[in-house]
Amino acid sequence: MPVCTVDDQLSERYQKDLKKLRRQLPHIDEDLGAAFGRIESSYASACSAAALLGFKGAVWKYRVSSQDAGSGSSQALRVIAYLDVETQKLYPVLLYHKAKRADAKPTDIRKAISELKATLQAELPEG
After folding, report:
1. Bridge partners of 91?
2. How far apart are CA 34 and CA 21, in angstroms?
3. Which helix (H) or strand (E) holds 107?
4. Partner of 81 at 20 to 30 A CA spacing, among 36, 60, 69, 119?
């Protein structure tokens, strides 16, 4: 089983999405915490994992059920995450409610990943 570490703090876009959804879904942090625990154990199969086409296995989509939405994972939350294969860290970059948005556009995904990579580069120690 492929394991990883989830780091949900570095993507500014993900944090904005999360902040917006917290107003509607008060238990979202619990729901995501439980899902990230499962994802860390097996990122390739947990939470109906699917590698998105066109991203060479580096971008994954997960279904996360919501206590507040009153429906199963098929109509609840979607997490789009970037996997750094070298470090085995998974970075959520987009978060949305399936009832409000059909799918994330590839251009939105690429932009969110670019922003994350810029943040990661800035985090590197100089030297």
Report:
1. 82
2. 17
3. helix 106-123
4. 69
CA quadruple 33, 96, 104, 75: dihedral sign: positive
CA–CA gap between residue 62 and residue 80 (Å, rounded): 7
Q: Domains in the chain, please, with CATH?
A: 5-123 (3.30.2310.20)
CB 94 within 8 Å of CB 61: no
Query: Among positive and negative, which fits the CA dihedral 84, 87, 89, 93?
Result: negative
pLDDT by residue for the chain (127 residues), tens digit each? 689 999 999 999 999 999 999 999 999 999 999 999 999 999 999 999 999 999 999 999 999 999 887 766 667 899 999 999 999 999 999 999 987 888 899 999 999 999 999 999 887 776 5
